[in-house]
Design goal:
Elements (H helix, E strand, L loop, with lengths): L11 H9 L7 H11 L4 E4 L6 H13 L16 E4 L3 H14 L7 E4 L5 H10 L3 E4 L1 H9 L10 E4 L2 H6 L3 H9 L6 E6 L4 H10 L4 E4 L10 E7 L5 H12 L4 E4 L3 H13 L4 E4 L5 H13 L4 E4 L14 E4 L6 H8 L9 E7 L4 H11 L6 E2 L49 H4 L46 H4 L1
Parallel strand pairs: 1-6, 1-7, 2-4, 2-5, 3-4, 5-6, 8-13, 8-14, 9-11, 9-12, 10-11, 12-13
């Protein structure tokens, strides 16, 4: 935290709103971005999640638009002057809520449009006239094509979570939307990373931008304790219960790689007596918003999510994040664990690693630029990871790991690093019977050289990460 809000030239209505929200000092991205945006310059900003980006662009834009503040009820006197684009419905709804709070003592109007909801109420709001429009790209194009909104008065456009929008294929939609906007405008681009694609986007649509970086690219928050535990696939659920109990955690996000795995894990944890909800792309918008509200209010303790929830959701004081699955994309790890340790608070990030994850862990190490130590976890939970009557499926596992929340798939997610031969999984081979024990404890060791699969010499990545996994003692206690 740095400068006081009173030190920047914000009008009294905005200062009052900020005070009502309990803000006292600015975060680094706010301290650097607000003065620049107030001058009308384009900005290319990089900041890790949970750093206060919304206030960094919303407050100075509202300040500049106060010159157009109008008490007239005529929609024509309230044209769209600021357009904020975000990749997901949850993010759009959250940013719109914050904008309303910042503008509550002004006459400036705002609304939000996103998919998964009836267009008619959104159309009615647009027809009333709004100065600030928060939107997802697809639904905004629907309204443009239906002539429900005109964007020829837009003076400011914000591309928030720009890397995520490109990641899920919104570039053509962004290009179409930007073609409807006046050429003379202020453009603000915020991204967690400055990838080559983001730099090309900025070069195309930003004019001489001021670059603001408050953390090195792909940095993880220093306030987050990161733990990596080596477990068998069948022991992940027990591992989550054990860490929750030992750390006395009251709430947590749990991330999985597929919608099917998300739903199964949420049901399994609920059967264990934990207050759990699922958040993934197959949920309706109403179901997703209800799950978020229940988590915020404390009615739900565990929110099991796909990466649709990994970016930007601002839920304060969440003490922990679990990666039930190592993410397919290493950059998603940064965004997932950014759900905890926000705004300077401490947090815990636990990642459960199996021997199938060696390649993904190698990619994560490259991103973090450091060696990751995976510690064996001695499970002491007496309950079986699977209940009697469960079929061949395992919660949150590879049966549907190719499905990436309906957005993107991984062609190689089943391939472990060369040299690994997956151990036979007794829980996968047959349903668990109470009182029975696995035929053999899973082995972390590599097979004899003669039994290893042959690998083509043109494949460069041969590293197996042997140090990641330490062989647990094969005992009846481990096997039970």
């Amino acid at each position: 935290m740095t400068t006081l809000y009173q030190s920047v030239a914000l009008a009294d209505p905005l200062q009052r709103a900020v005070a009502d929200m309990g803000y006292e000092t600015m975060t680094p991205i706010q301290a650097q971005a607000i003065p620049v945006v107030l001058t009308g310059k384009d900005v290319m900003g990089a900041a890790q999640t949970g750093t206060g980006k919304t206030a960094a662009f919303a407050l100075p834009l509202l300040q500049r638009m106060l010159a157009h503040e109008n008490t007239s009820a005529s929609p024509a006197r309230h044209p769209v002057r600021a357009l904020v684009l975000l990749p997901t419905r949850e993010l759009a709804d959250q940013v719109a809520e914050q904008v309303k709070l910042y503008a509550k003592y002004t006459q400036l109007r705002s609304t939000v449009v996103f998919g998964g909801m009836d267009m008619k109420p959104q159309t009615a709001e647009l027809k009333k006239g709004v100065e600030v429009l928060v939107a997802t790209p697809g639904r905004l194009l629907d309204h443009i094509e239906a002539r429900n909104v005109v964007l020829n008065h837009v003076e400011y456009v914000v591309l928030d979570e720009a890397d995520r929008m490109l990641d899920i294929g919104f570039l053509p939609d962004l290009q179409r939307i930007l073609s409807y906007l006046p050429r003379e405008r202020t453009t603000l681009l915020f991204s967690a990373t400055f990838s080559p694609e983001i730099k090309r986007l900025a070069a195309s649509y930003l004019h001489d931008p001021v670059t603001i970086e408050v953390a090195r690219p792909n940095a993880t928050a220093s306030t987050v304790e990161q733990c990596f535990y080596g477990v068998g696939e069948e022991g992940k659920r027990a591992a989550i219960r054990q860490v929750l109990r030992e750390r006395q955690l009251t709430q947590a996000f749990i991330f999985v790689n597929s919608k099917l795995g998300c739903a199964r894990l949420a049901r399994s944890l609920a059967r264990d007596g934990l207050k759990t909800a699922a958040l993934h792309g197959d949920k309706s918008q109403d179901e997703r918003l209800k799950a978020l509200e229940a988590f915020k209010s404390g009615e739900v303790d565990l929110l099991v999510c796909t990466d649709v929830a990994a970016r930007g959701l601002d839920i304060k004081d969440v003490p922990a994040v679990f990666n039930h699955d190592v993410p397919f994309n290493a950059e998603d790890y940064v965004h997932r664990i950014g759900r905890t340790g926000r705004a300077g608070a401490s947090g815990l990030a636990v990642t459960l690693v199996t021997e199938r994850d060696a390649r993904l862990m190698g990619e994560l190490e490259k991103l973090l630029k450091k060696k990751v130590e995976v510690q064996p976890l001695q499970l002491r939970d007496e309950r079986s990871p699977l209940r009697h009557g469960d079929s061949r499926h395992r919660e949150g596992t590879h049966g549907a790991r190719g499905e990436r929340d309906g957005m993107r798939s991984s062609r190689n997610h089943r391939h472990a690093a060369p040299g690994f031969v997956p151990s036979r999984d007794p829980f996968f081979d047959r349903p668990y019977e109470p009182g029975s024990a696995p035929e053999a404890a899973p082995s972390w060791e590599q097979p004899p050289a003669a039994a290893r699969p042959r690998v083509s010499s043109n494949i460069k990545q041969r590293r197996v990460l042997p140090a990641l996994f330490k062989a647990p003692q094969a005992s009846e206690e481990n096997a039970a």
